[in-house]
Amino acid sequence: MKIISNILRSALCFSVSGLITTGQLQAAEFNFKLHHLLPPMSEVHTKIMLPWAEKIEQESNGRIHIDVYPAMQLGGKPAQLFDQARKGSADITWTVAGYTPGRFRKSEVFELPFMASSAEVTSQALQQFATEEMTDDFREVKLLAIHTNATGVLHSRGKGIHKMEDLAGLKIRAPNKAMAEVYALMGASPIFMPAPQMSSALSKGVLDVASLSYDIVGPLKIHELTQSTTEISGDRGLYGQVFLFSMNKKSYLKLPKELQQVIDNNSGIKLAAWMGRILDEMGAKGRTLVKDSGNEIIVLSADETRHWRETAQPVIDAWMDDMNSDGEDGKKLYQRANQLIDQYGRKP
């Protein structure tokens, strides 16, 4: 079923100046398709994708119309979404960078353990980092935004995870390559899996632990399939996940300059910050949902968190070494990412 953007005309969350009524909108001159992997009831769909598409339509005075297709309705697999935008089978796509391990190497620094702060802070840092360091990775698309969500936590079936030893032998969803390596070092058995598959995997016992941020708990009913959630103490989370919001370059370039400006005005660091802020709000709601369902929320002590950090350090070191092998300065990239997160974290 096609989900179109104008069903949420009144739900704009991203600041809109000079709202235009339906009667004032002209017939669209340019019709685009926006494709993503999450279900239509997800808040990424209802609070980010639809409002963004509607904002473009309103600010273009109806000259641009964007149909939003959730849940892979246009076909393909989540790992193919970036290439759908690159090749033009969809005009705009939103996907997880980590679904294609090794492709966006520099962005992986934001997925390393104990790197990510809040989604709003980390997304701004990542967007600036991409502008400085990753222009070549996105030369074939119009990058609208690169961002992260709320930091990942561990949702467990059965006995809760109070210490690292509790992970021994458990089958845990790995959100990206770095965290798969971390979980293996901690004694768990990592399994790569897109987020939408986790509900079924938990219910069938394919997974013991869902490594997942709070913002997607509700739509996937993770709180109904698990009994406890483990969080990390401190101002950096266990991990972050990088997302790509991309537009086909030909679709962008066929727009006249004034409509390209509409896209530009709704891209970049302000868009990344807005996406991050919405995802933080969604994460807070997800945590409340977990708590209200009666599930145990375990917060690791500072000492235990330090133990996890020390165990994960070889993964960070290995990433820097790999970047050095590729002719990059891994340590410099790691330090710059940390510097940017600290910088945006200090802003009022």
TrEMBL record:
For the keyword Signal, the answer is yes
What's in the keyword line of the UniProt record? Answer: Signal
Under the heading InterPro entries, the entry gives: DctP_fam (IPR018389), TRAP_DctP_sf (IPR038404)
* Extent of the signal sequence: 1-27
Transmembrane region(s):
none
Q: Give the protein name, as stated in the record.
A: TRAP transporter substrate-binding protein
- Which species is listed as the source? Oceanobacter antarcticus
